[in-house]
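Researcher: Quick test of sequence recovery. Tokens follow.
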């Protein structure tokens, strides 16, 4: 084992970490933050939760980008990854997210303890 190698994964999916910054994600989607679960690490399918929440968005362009077309076979909307990337780069706050995700907090702490 190499002491500089750390292998960590989100409890379920990376979307649980995205959802953990509840207020920012609610602002991004234009929904009430109370709609976002307070314990995202316990969501069985965080990616589907993101899609479900986006479907409630008042912002049509986000619904069209994130939510897959009912008539199609795609599991994600046409710009799902682009919108998630935009959210993380411009809205997401890791320190706020760590308050709601123990998985993220453990990963953050492990990375910060690497000795270079």
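Model:
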């Amino acid at each position: 084992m190499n002491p500089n190698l750390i292998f960590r994964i989100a409890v379920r999916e990376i979307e649980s970490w995205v959802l953990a910054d509840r207020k920012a994600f609610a602002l991004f989607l234009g929904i009430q933050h109370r709609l976002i679960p307070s314990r995202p690490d316990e969501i069985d399918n965080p990616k589907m939760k993101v899609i479900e929440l986006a479907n409630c968005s008042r912002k049509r362009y986000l619904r069209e980008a994130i939510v897959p077309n009912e008539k199609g076979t795609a599991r994600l909307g046409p710009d799902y990854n682009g919108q998630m990337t935009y959210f993380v780069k411009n809205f997401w706050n890791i320190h706020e997210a760590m308050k709601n995700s123990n998985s993220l907090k453990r990963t953050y702490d492990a990375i910060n303890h690497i000795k270079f």
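The chain has one domain: 15-112.
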